Structures are given as structure tokens and as C-alpha cells.
Amino acid sequence: MSQKFQQFRGLCEQNLNPDANPRPTAQDLAGFWDLLQLSIEDISMKFDELYHLKANSWQLVETPEKRKEEKKPPPPVPKKPAKSKPAVSRDKASDAGDKQRQEARKRLLAAKRAASVRQNSATESADSIEIYVPEAQTRL
């Protein structure tokens, strides 16, 4: 992660330098930052899992739901996001962890959607760019 932050800092410095070639755009920086945010949220979720393990005396908690998930193949990815079902409350500690995990997933999904929208709008604007090349005036 520290290397990614150093890379982001270098990109920011290149963006501020008018002589940099190639010079990263603000969209490039925003996209890179979104990727960093996704990595940070992933690490935060892993730490949440560690805290749950520690609270459970370092024992993995296998619920019947997890066992079923391991046996079933993953469902196909829907075109539209499905409405999330409320989680069955087990106890207060795991319920709070589930809420944090769900919030992190929502932020991750929102960041992915935002990056997708930015990428699509950049593609659309790139498709609409017209380049005018005047006829060359050459003498033979």
C-alpha cells in the first residue's frame, strides 16, 4: 500500500508539472484514488474479520449458511443489483460486524459504479472527439 501511495504522490506531482510528459489528467488521478480506496476498504474488512476471530478466541465460526455456500456453486451475476435482504441477527457483536461489513461492501460497490460511470463518460467523450487535419500544401 505504501508503494501505491508513493505512486499516487508521483502522479500528483506530474500532474502539477506543466512540462511532464505524459501528464496525468485529473480523471487519471481520481481513478487511481478510487482504486486505492477499494484496496483500503478490502484491508479494513480483513481487519474486521481478525477482530471477530480474536473476540471468538481465534476459533473460526462456521455457520450453517457458510457450509451451504461452500457446497453450492456461486449464482450468476445479475444485470441489476438485487435488493439486499436484512441479515438474521445472531448476537450484538457479530451483528455490529455484519453492519460494518455491509457498509464497506456498499461503499465498495458505490466506488466501482462511480469508476465505471467515469470510464463510460470518458469513453463517450473520446468517441465524440473530432480531429481536423488540414490538407497538406506540398509542392512537387
From TrEMBL:
GO CC annotation terms, alphabetical: glutamatergic synapse; postsynaptic specialization
Domain of life: Eukaryota
Region called Disordered, residue ranges: 61-140
InterPro entries in alphabetical order: SAPAP
A GO MF term: molecular adaptor activity
One Pfam family cited in the UniProt record for this chain: GKAP
Stretches with biased composition (Basic and acidic residues): 63-73, 88-106
An annotated GO BP: signaling
Annotated Polar residues bias: 117-126
PANTHER family membership: DISKS LARGE-ASSOCIATED PROTEIN 4 (PTHR12353:SF19), DISKS LARGE-ASSOCIATED PROTEIN DAP SAP90/PSD-95-ASSOCIATED PROTEIN (PTHR12353)
Family stated for the protein in its record: Belongs to the SAPAP family.
Protein name in UniProt: Disks large-associated protein 4
Organism this protein belongs to: Balaenoptera physalus (Fin whale)
